[in-house]
Amino acid sequence: MQLVPPYPPLCAAAQRSTQPSANNLVAVFDASHGQPNWAQTGFSSREMHTNFVGVMEILCRLGCLCTPTGEQGLTQSLARAKLLVVPPPTGNYSARKECWLPLASSLFEAQEIADLLGFLRDGGRLFLSAYRFGDSFTNTNLRELISPLGCLLNDDVVIDLHTLRASHPLEAHFDSPRNCLPLAWALDGVATVHWRVMATFSILPGTSAWPLALSPGGSCISYNRAHRCISFASLPVAVVGLYGKGRFVLIGGPHAFESGTFGLLQMGDNARFLHNVLRWLLNDDPPPAQGNAVVPIPPETVPDFCRVENRGPGQSTVAYMERQLRANGVLKALNQANWLP
After folding, report:
1. For each of the chain's 341 residues, which pLDDT tens digit applies?
2. Residue 175, class by beta-carbon neighbours within 10 Å (0-12 exposed, 13-18 middle, 19+ buried)?
3. Angle between helix 270-282 and 53-61 (nearest 10)
4. How far apart are CA 325 and CA 170, in angstroms?
């Protein structure tokens, strides 16, 4: 396994070392569930040394040694890890159909899920990124992986209708200002976090998890293509939580913290926000009180005026919205894997 030493290097001996000492924190980047397959679209893969290099650099500055899973596999890598970073997994790309096809090797096996939950219970840490439209787009099983944590990955996408009118769908983004960032410990030096289109999460009642970032709601809608429904509510696009002795961070899309094409890590306060999040994730001190955290409304209980479903009087509204999105090229772009990396 290749290890990247903390940056800046402490000494020449540290540069030469390939084995962590007892004091090193090892961050393992998952590359065994289709993350290299993103390169099949002609864009960069989503691995430690490509789109996630900015995440790696911040972890190195926080004292971690970083390594990909490689041929060793996920379960074996967890034995030496403090933190597991999971970039968006994906299936196999079909250029003819312009979509992701299921790939057995990209799915998390039952034993891997059990091992990851045990890793968290024993004090491990997880930083996981999903993708727009959830598993229905990438043909993977992240929902199965994270549901034991009390968080559900939704098959939706958050779209800011205002920015789509002024920019190409590939460059569309939305912002979470401070009032959409409810955890005080994440706000040091942060005024706004910028996101591209991404999925949302549902937090189950009684779960030790809280929204890390919320979509603004209103004109920044959530569109669920599986259920053909629209929500105008403010919804969690990033979540933090506790599981046993461990901690986890779930992100609905990778672009905010990526360094590649269309990555937003260097935009606004994104890098500072990521630094705060990773510092909390690696911290062994008792977690800060979550008293200022808002409790999001579960999707099934969103008031009628905030949610429009494809039934009864809502059918015409959903159909009209879909026509507008198609006319602007938005649905076409968002449903083509190779059009939006």
Report:
1. 445 444 333 333 333 333 444 457 999 999 999 999 999 988 889 999 999 999 999 999 999 999 999 777 899 999 999 999 999 999 999 888 878 999 999 999 999 999 999 999 999 999 999 999 999 999 999 999 999 999 999 999 998 888 776 777 678 889 999 999 999 999 999 999 999 999 999 999 999 999 999 999 998 999 998 888 889 999 999 999 999 999 999 999 999 999 988 899 999 999 999 999 999 999 988 777 564 555 455 555 555 557 777 777 788 888 887 887 777 666 666 666 665 55
2. middle
3. 60
4. 14
Output the six-digit token pair for 10. 């402490």
If we measure between CA atoms, which residue out of 263, 257, 260 comes closest to residue 278?
257
Q: How do strand 209-214 and strand 236-243 relate by DSSP bridges?
A: antiparallel
Distance between CA atoms of 20 and 34, rounded to whole angstroms? 27
- 44 in Cβ contact with 341 (< 8 Å): yes
pTM of the model: 0.88
